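Components:
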Amino acid sequence: MQTAIDIHSEDGRHGRGAATASLRAENVHKTLGTHPVLRGVSLAAYPHEVISVLGASGSGKSTLLRCLNLLEVPDSGEIWFRDEKLDIRPPIGQNGARIGDARQARRVRASLGMVFQSFNLWPHKTALENVTEGPVHVRGLTRRAATERAENYLRKVGLIERRDHYPRHLSGGQQQRVAIARALAMEPEVLLFDEPTSSLDPELTGEVLRTIRALAEEGRTMILVTHELSFAREVSSRVAFMQGGRIEEEGPPDEVLSRPASAGLRRFLDPAC
Amino acid sequence: MDIALIIESIQTLLGGVVLTLELTILSLLIGFVLSVPLAFMRASRSPWLSWPVLAYTYVFRGTPLLVQLFLIYYGLGQLAFVRESFLWLLFRDPFYCALLAFSLNSAAYTIEVFRGGIQSVPPGLVEAAQAIGLSPTKISLRIVFPLAFRTVLPSYANEVVGMIKASSLASTVTLLEITGLARKLVSETFAPYEVFIAAGAIYLGLTFLASRLFNLIELHLSGAPPDKARRPWLLKLRQAL
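Structure:
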């Protein structure tokens, strides 16, 4: 189902053979304020790939991830979801870039599960209600079907017994696992993780990383912005190292992380040298 | 001071409670319904949406409610298009004049209360809703407004209490709610002291009940421990919404 062989090859720019990328950024530029955060980034996630995006703070990796589901709208460049190009209007004068087709953006976002650094669970909804919100109000499932689906995913992240708890009664790690269940309940094509463990105490990162690893082992397509180097090395099929708004190096984790070609990545991997 | 007269007055004035409550509750409901969309416009970054609403709240919060009531009660009848249309059926009745004035006034204050709440909702919670593909209307009604409402509940409770008290102005346009009845009673008994003490006592009772009600709502919305303490019917009501 997810091999998605592309016979049409509508633009002839596919990086690897005939397979269509699930999600792809082409030469994306983004300036926030006066600061150019992304300066021509291209990245593609093919089905079943786990891509980790590494880099120092301010290298643009979170902005790249947010551009992929249009939470930030690129100033130029293209975002492709499978064989569909997202409608982006470039900035005009004072007005920044904006989404051209809101309906398309919503539909595509519904297929891209996003997990945030600060969880962003809705505090007025229970764990279960957080997870059923999308299935009911985006996918149009009945409440009964949505509840069943939500319970499955809460079970999967090990929190079924917390289903009726409000976020404030959950630990950070539990909140993030509910947030993962919320993303999964949309049955997305691609999962986007934006530093999912960065606001967790060290003793709580383990439970979240275990959950993410289990998803990687299921063969889900994922893009993961992270500071957890050893975790990235373990779960990724590819890593990309960003610096100064560009992807500096990209490749299989053992290659890139063991034999860094650029001075930037060498410094990042071993700040002491 | 004649205690017996006070008690007697209270009995008479209780006859005005229904009208006071009618005016207050209807004004608050209309004000609420108007203020939710207008508060979102007021909180919008687009000046085309925000400025007209600002002008409205500025005028209605910057002038006395009594003046607004008189303008509507004495003024609407001067306008030919009001007198010659179905509107006259409504606005020749002082009740609807008072209702209009109170609703518009209450909406103006409520808009500013809700605007503050809307702007205090953390952007990350909105992004999380956008990220699952929720439509802007659903984001506003299911995520932003419920959170905003929780934040501003104490201020909104003030507005409700204020409206109960402000409804006494309806007596100036011949309506016989609590204060209207009190004035009538004073002219019959020449005992303003006892009668207005009685009126004040009734308002105090009403505002006490209103603030208790809001305390309970607040407790329910913010402090409810997971699941068990929630009343089943409230849970059902919430799920239905």
